[in-house]
């Protein structure tokens, strides 16, 4: 049995071999260009962009994506080097999806995601169609949701309604934001109105909003795919995507519940499938089953692989979603397909003799998504159980902490009470010693360490004594402190006295200078006599 490979690596196709080599060469070349951590990222991107012919933003995306694959995703890196099937748009899509985990994701989470992404992008059958960058990004985002605690348990703003208008020079647009079920109901009404008027949905909406025509009523059908037997898990709302538990509970009110396991083997005698069968096929396929086609399954036709007129049953095992274009290709016998009933792998055979395989990975109940949805829901419930257990453990730890804290507080209070009693005893002892004048000999060690207060009290009274050996170090320290304070006081007094003496000396000198200046002025006044009469001589 030949080794599985993607169609982009088909060894029998020269074009596939050429581009496999090109991807390998390009990847290895860019590995040499990844800037060091201490380099200026913007300048490095700008320089490479000038020679690469792309924007600096694009180059930056390549740098970041390669950095993640090479240094954080070793298993995916190994798969990539084994097949050389991923180009830069697909690698960038993986990095962008993983960026939702934040700048410092948990290493264990990254390790698990690395394993899952590597498994997802490892071919399982021969000549398998490689998913597009959009599909890869969407699948990795679904994987990230499994570990990302920022995914809200309740849907944010579930009842929000908003109308947005955008005006331009030639045309304008009107957008409405509302809960899923309201938008679906409006869409069904507009579709029914458009069919009745024979116009487009946009024209029908304009006529209804301007009052030219009354909207037709329509029956709204919402299809919700949720994991079986797992409460509180997210679910897939057809046409919208994954929704949280709050929306799930709201949509389940009055809903018809269909067991997918039972519908998988259901069959109807008519050509047209029942609503349950159609919902199952749409949920299994997700999109048109033509390799690479992204038309949603709910907008596709359900094709009888074995023609109904030739005895083919109307059952999920014989029905597959094909968009109108690819359904026509199949009807024109330009291509045909066969399906592996166990793996659900579809093999497309073309009139030129070539073929390609594809897997049902996109539908919410397809082989891949079904496994993911089960594990996701189970992990979500398990995570909540673990969170509850952890909360109980934390509560027990908090209780233990406060119990120990209460014991410690009680012990500290008892110590404070003992200290207070000892301090009172010390004061009583000092008073008795002062009263009797018993300061000869040794002083007993006070029970309280604030011996400074006792020593200071004795010092202020001018008492001198010999301290016991246990108290001697404290006495010496206290004496040094008192001596230092005395020296500081004496220094301040001397500085103030010198300043006053200097100021007084300056004052005396100034007064003496003023007196001498006054005597000189009087002497000059006696020597010079000015005549009162101009005709009198000056002598």
Automatic annotation (TrEMBL):
Transmembrane segments: none
Region (Disordered), start-end ranges: 509-539
The keyword Nuclease is assigned to this record: yes
UniProt-listed InterPro entries: HNH_nuc
Coiled coil: 377-404
Gene3D superfamilies: 1.10.30.50
Protein name: Restriction endonuclease
Organism: Corynebacterium stationis
Lineage summary: Bacteria, Bacillati, Actinomycetota, Actinomycetes, Mycobacteriales
């Amino acid at each position: 049995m030949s080794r599985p490979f993607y169609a982009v690596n088909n060894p029998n196709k020269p074009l596939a071999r050429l581009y496999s080599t090109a991807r390998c060469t390009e990847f290895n070349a860019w590995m040499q260009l990844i800037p060091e951590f201490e380099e200026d990222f913007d300048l490095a991107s700008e320089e490479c962009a000038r020679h690469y012919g792309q924007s600096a933003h694009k180059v930056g995306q390549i740098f970041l994506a390669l950095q993640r694959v090479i240094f954080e995703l070793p298993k995916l890196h190994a798969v990539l080097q084994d097949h050389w099937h991923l180009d830069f748009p697909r690698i960038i899509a993986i990095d962008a999806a993983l960026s939702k985990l934040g700048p410092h994701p948990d290493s264990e989470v990254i390790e698990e995601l690395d394993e899952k992404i590597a498994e997802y992008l490892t071919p399982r059958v021969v000549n398998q169609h490689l998913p597009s960058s959009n599909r890869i990004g969407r699948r990795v985002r679904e994987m990230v949701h499994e570990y990302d605690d920022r995914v809200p348990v309740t849907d944010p703003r579930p009842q929000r309604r908003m109308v947005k208008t955008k005006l331009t020079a030639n045309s304008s647009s009107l957008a409405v934001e509302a809960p899923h079920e309201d938008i679906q109901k409006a869409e069904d009404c507009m579709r029914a109105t458009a069919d009745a008027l024979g116009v487009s949905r946009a024209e029908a909406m304009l006529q209804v909003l301007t009052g030219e025509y009354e909207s037709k009523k329509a029956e709204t059908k919402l299809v919700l795919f949720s994991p079986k037997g797992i409460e509180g898990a997210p679910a897939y709302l057809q046409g919208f995507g994954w929704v949280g538990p709050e929306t799930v509970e709201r949509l389940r009110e009055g809903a018809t519940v269909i067991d997918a396991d039972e519908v998988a083997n259901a069959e109807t005698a008519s050509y047209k499938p029942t609503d349950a069968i159609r919902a199952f096929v749409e949920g299994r396929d997700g999109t048109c089953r033509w390799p690479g086609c992204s038309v949603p399954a709910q907008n596709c036709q359900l094709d009888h692989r074995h023609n109904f007129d030739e005895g083919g049953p109307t059952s999920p095992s014989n029905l597959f979603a094909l968009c109108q274009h690819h359904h026509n290709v199949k009807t024109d016998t330009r291509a045909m397909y066969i399906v592996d009933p166990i793996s659900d792998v579809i093999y497309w055979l073309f009139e030129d003799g070539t073929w390609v395989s594809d897997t049902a990975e996109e539908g919410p109940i397809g082989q891949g998504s079904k496994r993911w949805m089960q594990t996701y829901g189970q992990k979500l419930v398990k995570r909540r159980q673990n969170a509850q257990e952890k909360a109980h453990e934390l509560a027990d730890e908090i209780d233990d902490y406060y119990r120990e804290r209460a014991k410690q507080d009680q012990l500290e209070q008892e110590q404070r009470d003992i200290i207070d009693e000892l301090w009172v005893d010390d004061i009583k002892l000092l008073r008795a010693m002062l009263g009797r004048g018993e300061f000869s000999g040794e002083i007993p060690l006070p029970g309280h360490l604030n011996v400074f207060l006792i020593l200071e009290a004795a010092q202020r009274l001018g008492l001198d004594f010999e301290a016991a050996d246990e108290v001697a170090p404290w006495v010496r320290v206290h004496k040094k402190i008192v001596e230092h304070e005395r020296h500081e006081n004496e220094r301040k007094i001397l500085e103030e006295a010198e300043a006053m003496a200097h100021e007084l000396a300056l004052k005396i000198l100034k007064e003496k200078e003023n007196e001498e200046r006054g005597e000189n002025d009087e002497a000059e006044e006696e020597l010079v006599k000015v005549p009162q009469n101009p005709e009198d001589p000056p002598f």
